[in-house]
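Lecture notes, structural biology module. Today: joint structure prediction for complexes of two components.
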Amino acid sequence: MKRSIFSKAVFAGTIVFLFLPLAVLVFYSFNESKSGSWGGFSLRWYLKLFTDSPDLWRAFGNSAIIALGSAAVATAIGTLGAIGVNWYRFRLRSYLRTVTFLPMILPEIIIGVSLLVFFSGLGIRLGLFTVFVAHVSFNLPFVFLLVLARLEEFDFSIIEAARDLGATEAQTLARVILPMIMPGIVSGFLTAVTLSLEDFVITFFVTGPGATTLPLYVYSAIRFGISPVINALSVVMILGTVALTWSMRNFLKYIAAK
Amino acid sequence: MKQGPGGLYAAPSILWLSVFFVAPLLIIVAYSFLTQGQRGGVEWKPTLDAYKAIANPTFLTVTVNTIVVALGATLVTILIALPCGYHMARSKRQNLLLLLVIIPFWTNFLIRIYAWIAILGNEGFLNDLLRFLGLTDEPLRFLYNRWAVGLVLVYTYLPYAILPLFSTIDKFDFSLLEAARDLGATKLKAITRVLLPNIRGGVFTAFLFTFIPIFGAYAVPLLVGGTESYMLGNLIADELTKSRNWPLAAAISLVITLVTTVGVMLLLRAGGTATLGSGGAGTKEPEEGAALPAQSVASAEGEPA
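The predicted structure, tokenised, for the full assembly:
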């Protein structure tokens, strides 16, 4: 069958649609004038972004801490959970499977609102800690499912062989299971980092004083109208995305080849 | 499946999710039946006030608006995503095309909304362009209406639909289409009778991944919408932070949860019969599909070219 011209045209149109806004941001980020119209090429907004935006960088720092921290905790807990669910029978097994499915079918706002109500009901002060807890909670199921997908490809007899050869449970975990499922763990961790850096809605509800993340910072900047520094920041973030996508792709390829 | 230390492995997950996921949801259920507190919070007197408040016309208007916007945007998204997924699946440069879809998808959510404000705003790119071309003097108002909300929602969730559709269509055996054509089916018929039934699972997944977040949308209508494009998510936030009516916010949250859960169950049931009925290449297990946006990225990227 001949390749359809229709689908090709729609795809090309879609790519233009997807990239047009990003291109506009790049264009404006080099704009000398502060308002919309073109006032000549300039790097002043980049200069301001890197040298004169302390709040922005503080927000970036918060985002980085929350993303790496919550991804690490979610990966540790979620990986163990997936190992348990994949190979063993125990009470609450189907409960865990159902609960890890929940974030996929619940809109973010529900998770954010319920956590806000939960934290304030317990009198826990909103801040970096509550944001961290929230991020672990929505990251955990994703890590769990990604690792589980990887585990399903493996044979339990490998574990039995390790045990027959005298390995303890801990040794089996460290020397056999974890190395085998490393690609799943790594992609789980990277996905968790990305989801955490990306999240606005849930963070918005559970954040407090001093816990502004980068998306929250961008949000408050947008509320004050178009800001050229945000244009420059956007371009830096888009480049970061491209670099991350690229390196993740190569990294996963490298792992797959190993 | 073995007896063994499974419970030990799973205990941290079960504990964490029970405390920080299930318990908060149960609290929402409880709050919806309690009396509104003076300054936020609740008083422990059971009442149905929140549910009575839901029945008022404002709420119904917003609900209808939310459903219309969510269904419309989802439909448009899937209609665009289907040919895209098809083209990507048939392409020889799949990795490159995937990358093209993933880059905007991974660009920060708020940056993507912001980009549309930079385009459609009064001092935005589009108005600039129109003025430059001499077509208008006064800036035209593109933002803060239902169309802007719809456009930005479609833009935001398009990759969520393209990725699962691509991975399903990619597994489809295209010789089936050739067979259909050889047996005399028209191109359109081959697609509607052979391709679509076989990729049903992917279409369901794409539907869920777009409909659910759009139905609970908060940031997009807040930033590019106007009063007439208010959605349920905005109503919840207002009740929480402005009106301080927590029971009502809880009740609205439950309505959203109910709609999405019932929707998912109906779709899974329909998807389930599709799996049994056709046994086609494209019908994926819902659970597997559910991890998708992330998973399809990871797995598709993980395969050596």
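Point to remember: Chain B has one domain: 56-302.
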